[in-house]
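One-letter codes give the sequence; backbone shape is given numerically. An example follows:

. . .
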Amino acid sequence: MTIVKNNEKGKCPFRNLKPCDNECAFYRKGLRYKENSGDPIPFEECAINIIADNLEAMHNRTYMLQKEVGEAKGIIALKTMVDLNMARPDQAQELRNHIQRVVSPPDPKKAIE
């Protein structure tokens, strides 16, 4: 296993700008797991960097969840409008096409291109 050690973040401001190592109270050694793969990635790093990485990952997950909820609300509203004939006939097909584009899984061939 390759151990990932982050040296590009700079020196530790809590230890007179020395690199973080096992003498530092903030030094952490452990395993990280990526969201899409179950393979653990060993690391040795400052706890401050680990906290910052975790906050960034939580922010990104929250953003994506809010985006998905917004899209779902939009689809529900459009579907309701179409079902209740609240849209003009020329709009109904356009709304159906929009719902289909959002709900349908992407074409893998187009994703590769």
DSSP finds three helices and three strands in the chain. Residues 4-105 form one domain. The first strand starts at residue 4 and ends at 5.
